[in-house]
UniProtKB/TrEMBL annotation:
<feature type="domain" description="VOC">
    <location>
        <begin position="3"/>
        <end position="131"/>
    </location>
</feature>
<dbReference type="GO" id="GO:0046491">
    <property type="term" value="P:L-methylmalonyl-CoA metabolic process"/>
</dbReference>
<dbReference type="InterPro" id="IPR017515">
    <property type="entry name" value="MeMalonyl-CoA_epimerase"/>
</dbReference>
<dbReference type="GO" id="GO:0004493">
    <property type="term" value="F:methylmalonyl-CoA epimerase activity"/>
</dbReference>
<dbReference type="InterPro" id="IPR029068">
    <property type="entry name" value="Glyas_Bleomycin-R_OHBP_Dase"/>
</dbReference>
<keyword id="KW-0479">Metal-binding</keyword>
<comment type="similarity">
    <text>Belongs to the methylmalonyl-CoA epimerase family.</text>
</comment>
<dbReference type="Pfam" id="PF13669">
    <property type="entry name" value="Glyoxalase_4"/>
</dbReference>
<dbReference type="InterPro" id="IPR037523">
    <property type="entry name" value="VOC_core"/>
</dbReference>
<dbReference type="InterPro" id="IPR051785">
    <property type="entry name" value="MMCE/EMCE_epimerase"/>
</dbReference>
<protein>
    <submittedName>
        <fullName>Methylmalonyl-CoA epimerase</fullName>
    </submittedName>
</protein>
<dbReference type="GO" id="GO:0046872">
    <property type="term" value="F:metal ion binding"/>
</dbReference>
Amino acid sequence: MNKIEHIGIAVNNLQSAGDIYEKLLNSPVYKIEEILSEGVKTAFLKVGTNKIELLEASNTESPIAKFIAKKGEGIHHIAFEVDDIRAEMMRLKQEGFVLLNEEPKQGADNKLVCFVHPKSANGVLVELCQEVK
């Protein structure tokens, strides 16, 4: 793993959360996109080299909708940048981590992603991210 790629925050309303975080971070939302397969709409902000991803459910069956219903708005996941997502997935499986998907899938911000089950990482949902070249 190379570095923290971003921190994901689940929100009820992307527009109002974006306004809050723009003021808080003194930085604009630079990208908004919807990932239909995941039922989520995302907004990204950057502070220096650090990124925040705001996540709003786009339907009631979305993992984000379920997260907010159970835990409320707040930190949803921490994402780490990797050079080779498949090799990192294999390494983590060999170390005994439970992955939420068997193959990387297309995520936001031009990334291939895979999630590590929170029960494997002391209650933290971990995302692996590899830039699609």
